[in-house]
Amino acid sequence: MAPGPAFHRARRPTTSAFASLLLVIPLIAIAVIVFKTVWGANTVCKGGPFCYLRFGMTAFILSGLMLITQACPQYSRLLEFTWFGAAQTQLQILGFFAIVIFGAIYEILPRLVDGGLPFPKFVRAQHWLFMLGTLLLVGSLAFAGVQQGRAGFDPAAALPGLRVATLGWTFYLLGSLLFAANIFVMTIRWKLSLVKTVIAYIKSPLATSEVKP
Amino acid sequence: MKNGFAVFFAVVVVLGGSWLGFVVAPALQLGKAKQATILNSTDTWPQQRTGEATLGLQIYRANGCAACHTEQIRQDGVAAEVTLTGLGNSKPDDLKAFVHSLFVLPELAKLTNDLATTLKDWKGDLPTTILTTGDKAVADAFADRLKAAGAKSETRVVATGADLPRWGVRRSVAADYLYDFPVQLGGLRVGPDLANVGARLPDANWQLLHLYAPKLSVTNSAMPSFKFLFDVRKMGSAPASDALNLPPAFAPAAGYEVVPKLEAKELVAYLLSLRADAPLYEAPFSPVTSAKP
User: Fold this and answer.
1) Among residues A38, A166, B131, B261, which is most buried (max CB within 10 A)?
2) Contacts across the A-B interface (CB distance below 8 Å)
3) Are residue B114 and residue B247 in the same domain, yes or no?
4) What is the pTM (predicted TM-score) of this model?
5) H or E element: which one contains B291?
6) CATH value of A16-200 in 1.20.210.10, 2.60.120.1440, 3.30.390.60, 3.40.630.30
7) What ipTM was estimated for this complex?
């Protein structure tokens, strides 16, 4: 129980824990929507932006469940102040938000610059790297959190989990490099094509109707 | 939209309710908090920090210490303890047999495991705490039975929680943070809780050594070294008075010495000012509630 106003921790479960538990209702609603739309769609997942969205939404529901787990007093006594909280944050920020935004960029940007991606295979590779990265990062951090809580915050207890989490971060780094390569080359091509258009415009001969006899 | 007003009203109630509960009510309750009075004393708590320690809070903040350290000790609940202080006319083995005979009582059913383990290796030395779990009513009932057998005992209500024996003597309360700005509560314990570190580890020299080389005193420490808070400089004719006394494995090259910068001294002054070791009305130390003579 953190130091705070008395009525927030008057009885167990505390007010805030109860409020967090109420989150289960919107979470179920979102889960139903995701199940009926993203998972029920006829679109086949071949590593494109749609897969990013599907994975991101699943991560969102899982991170909501983790948040509710932390709100239960009997679990929060073990998990509060451990790496489990960090695992939940990373699942929400990287597993849901970042991956959905990456998917959106892959979907929108090629249409905006009207050029197509220079390395289409990288999209699928990045999806796999991010999926593995999320699993390794979040899974190992959550495991490290439970170990840490059980061992009474002994720094050594969380160490194996943190080492695996570093591997997860490496996968994220590789995936982000693939993304950077794709976007960088695409932007350069787009700029060159703009210059080419301008040069072609300047070089083009004037229309004959404008030449005075 | 047919129910426009109803939707608007519902949104106002939901948002206004949370605002009242999470902003207004705590501000009314704690916004004008004053110093608390220490139990059985006229002294007030907490005292304003020294200037050096107040500056140290900013060093603590600037170095992101709150990312890995919390400043809050939690308490899970309370339990009643029964301590045996006198045997009367009975012998230890008689009392053991008597306590074992009480195990059939339904009100003591939850305590039998605890009592059996504490009494197993007891040789009759006093005072000894024979019951550590259970609520006040059960503990009182048990103490009454002991009194009937002629033994003397004390019942105490003690705070329980894994944080307490590890890092503090009582839980953290709002008054502890009266002079902290901003409050560095922290949310992750990579390292230990620091709410009571000034009382736990009061040696300023130890703190400086720990900041310079964490693995020196805590072999499995995960803390990074804060070497940039120290100057490594050429020694004069004699070592400076505040130079660190480092073992060879951590010492700089011969003829050099490690001297804490002002920031390190301020940070240590702040760490030593972190104390939660005064009993307050809302967070007392385990008091003796009743003694059965």
Assistant:
1) B131
2) 58
3) no
4) 0.81
5) strand B288-292
6) 1.20.210.10
7) 0.76
